[in-house]
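Intended use. Records like the one below are meant for learning the mapping from a protein sequence to its folded structure. Do not use them to infer anything beyond what is encoded.
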Amino acid sequence: MQRRTLFSAAAALVAGAALPAWAQTAPALPVLQVWKDPNCGCCQDWVAYLQADGFQVQVFDTGNTAVRKRLGLPDKFGSCHTGLIGGYVIEGHVNAREIRRLLAEKPKAIGLAVPGMPVGSPGMDGAVYGARRDAYDVVLVQPDGTGRVYQHYSGNSSGFKRTGTADQALPMAEAEVRRVDTAAGKISLKHGEIKNLDMPPMTMVFQVSDPALLGKVKAGDKVRFTALQVNGAYTVMSLEPAP
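Structure written out for the chain above:
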């Protein structure tokens, strides 16, 4: 019996040594505060993913643009929601693994970001996306506003072909306006398929290329629109009432 116990202890020590230093201990996690748009489904999916991983999450459905600026995260790393945990900013669909690593390693940094909304990242990986997974980086944002790759995730571009540029005619998509945020320059749309982005139907928050577009619509309106991914952000390029 004593020999068996010694073997078990040795095996546990070997297994622990194989793990990275930051993963060998699991201290209590601080509360993660998250600011998001109340109509953004993928933001809520990301919150649910983190809760399932053991995070305590406090949600503020007030949008995230003003909070991102207040916390000092450059807009070039922006996404659809902003979090704060242990003094670090967490922007966009960041993986739980990297948040835990950040809290354990405690680097001198503003925080972590997954710019834009890459398909396949946590919260953007539901059944509606099929097997599609875009490659993306989790970026460590430095105190001077620069970033370096903290972790890279490989993609699977099978069946994925993005078409259309700002210089080409974009296909129109249909949608219902859920919310208009003129202060932040954003609009929440429950939309159909966006063919040039290979994006299935969902409810999502978009930036707009021209703030004047938001003056043409209100919540509940049926619209047609075009969209592109601009600097990592999904952006409405044109917007008009549906016929």
